[in-house]
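User: I'm writing a short methods note and want a consistent example. For Gamma-glutamyltransferase 2, I'll paste the sequence; you return only the structure tokens, no commentary, since I'll be parsing the reply automatically.
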Amino acid sequence: MRNKSLILAVLLLSLVPCVWPQATKAPFLSRHASIAAGSHGVVVSGKPAATAAGIKILQQGGNAADAGAATLLALSVTSVGAFCVGGEIPILVYSADQKSVKLLEGQGEAPRDPKAIAWYMKHGIPDGDVKAAAVPGTIDAIVTLLKLYGTKSFEEVVQPTLAILDAGGPTWYIDTGSGERIETGVHWQADLAVTYRKLVDSEKAAKGTRQQKLQAVSDRFYRGDIADALEAWYIEKGGFLRKQDLAAHKTPVVDPLKTTYRGYEVYKAGPLTQGPYLSQTLRLLEGFDLKKMGFNSADYIHTVIEAEKLALADRDEYYGDPNYAKVPMQLLLSDQYTNMRRELIDPKRASLELRPGDPYNMKATRPPTITGPWHGGTTVMCVTDKFGNVIAATPSGLSSTAGVAGRTGIIHGSRLSSLNTFAGTPNVIQAGKRPRITLSPTLLFRDNHPVMAISVAGGDQQDQAAIQVILDYVEFGMKPEEAFSAPRFSTTHFISSFSQERAELGSLSLPNALPEEVQADLRARGHVITMSREAVGGVALIGIDPKAKQATAVGPAAGEME
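Assistant:
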């Protein structure tokens, strides 16, 4: 990525006409969206203040990585409960200069103390408690993004967030689980501002290159006095994390998973996330004429849901931290396995069982390993710049009841609840292991050019929404704002990624706007139907027209630079 001087203005506006595939005539739900379009750079995120932070950095000559870092930092203080400093961020980055896509795995680990792991296996992973906190992944992920792709300093990209904190907002509440909400107090904003200024001071005091100065930011957080303060809080609150866990943390930078669909290239995070099941689903669907079936017809919905069920079953059976689990990714995506699994989709009957396959022995099905017993927030961000760089990230922190870490102002998530306690399974909790997260940004390319960046909030529903956005665009020629607003359907026919829960098998949630005859057809095929007014997944996306060099951002809060 490179930097050029820009003096540009922020503008939130209606869609500027662009050249896109032929538009579908499908009916759309009325869904509020902020839309921005331009050729100099757009930002979309879960909060207007965070989008404004990213736009400000673009105005100051920063590139997509700089703007992404600023947006993420601002989201960490404006989307508390959905994302926080103690959370995690998988980040997909396309570098126009390098003509390559990389994945920054901004995910923290479980404690390394074997006694802690033994406690979890005996007592379970308490949802929301400090014991469910993983090592905070946010700061090192942002530093890594800046080191590898950015041009700005940490001091520069954190300024918009400091302005938000100095203004004293927003207030954060803890949900006690009994309907009561407890205000944590206003001091956390001032305390977090002090922590961020300590990081800035370390960057300014460090000797050497820009990268070495940025590394000083991460070192102070994970290996310095801030880590000391966090460890003291962990001990006080009965948590298992220690300074050695923080000190060992480093954001891996890896090649993403790349697959194709109808001539498009799809980039996803690997099996550390649920992302590959999107790729598996698209591979299965490529054998059907979805366009001929028609948008949201009974045949279309049935086929997509049945393909998702098969891919989700493989997710639950095989995905986990690849540093600890052998994940047969190439086999799962192979032609032989895909063709065999595709034959399981009955066009007339809904599946009412979990059906993972056996890629090792190339068998269509095998009994699921996890059979019970069963036990009882995320935000979005995408950025482009005038240089052609594109970033999609899905920041999260889950909601935690642990409170603020002493006087650091740092709030933790409860991501360890995405691990399980089923011994011998790929996602069982182990010392230093990273949870298999639902967070799964997407980049879509055509002829080696990015055409769409997608980020979705919504736990297990994230990639179900992303799959439909891709199909809306590729199969039905929808524009970005149409794909955003198009009615979506979903299933909970899988093992939950949180608290080891499993929903009813055969479930299918449909949008209320769906015609009665379609609903009746799907019921007749055996789907367990519920109707919903709610949108599936909190989608944010950027559509990119390579020929017109125009980008359109659609989502909760979109901004453009002229």
